[in-house]
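tool=predict chain=A
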Amino acid sequence: MRKDLLARAFFGVMIVALGGILLLQNLDIIKFNNWGIFWGIFWGSAFILAGLSAIFSKRPLWFWGILLIVIGLFIGLNLSDIIDVNFWSIFFPALIILVGASVIFNIKPSTSKKSEDDDSSDGEKTAIFYGQESRVKGNYEGGALTAIFGGVELDLRQAKIKDGSVISVFTFCGGITIMMPDDIVVKNEVRGVFGGSEDKSIAKSSAKKEVYIQGECILGGLEIK
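tool=predict ok
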């Protein structure tokens, strides 16, 4: 299963669960007082998913992947009363320490803030808690872009794009930027949930090829230019 589909499935289930709980509570069908458990499951699972995605990415990010999984397990253990520590009271100080350590020891994702030339047709790009920039110069037939607490920038201005290509996007507290050539007509079909998309692309009058951009932006955004 593609990582973007797994992320969509997880966040989709959690959003449906949240909406269902709120609806049943507002209808006085249930009394739900376990929000701490709900958000603990949400954040613990989100961190573990992010860690697994980082580890099994095209360029494995072992340090950050393991760190995210440990954070998710820590939340789960705290939720199960196996340990009794206020996670949020130590999360931000620990995050500051880790950022400082990453500067000192240069522990960072190999693709963070780095532009790469990609002559292949592999269109799957995933950024979780970091940023990824990619410039495609070869053939491009579509792909999947995922940004979770991070950002993806895809430059297709020099790519040979196949007519009718589909780019699937998913953001959660992240952002995606796609730069298109002027010989492409963009069909933006992205849905926004507390987020949105903006199409700034300008196709020339002779443009005939079409590219379809589909997916969801949840608490995040997509910019096409």
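Residues 108-114 have pLDDT under 50 and may be disordered. The chain is about 35% helix and 35% strand.
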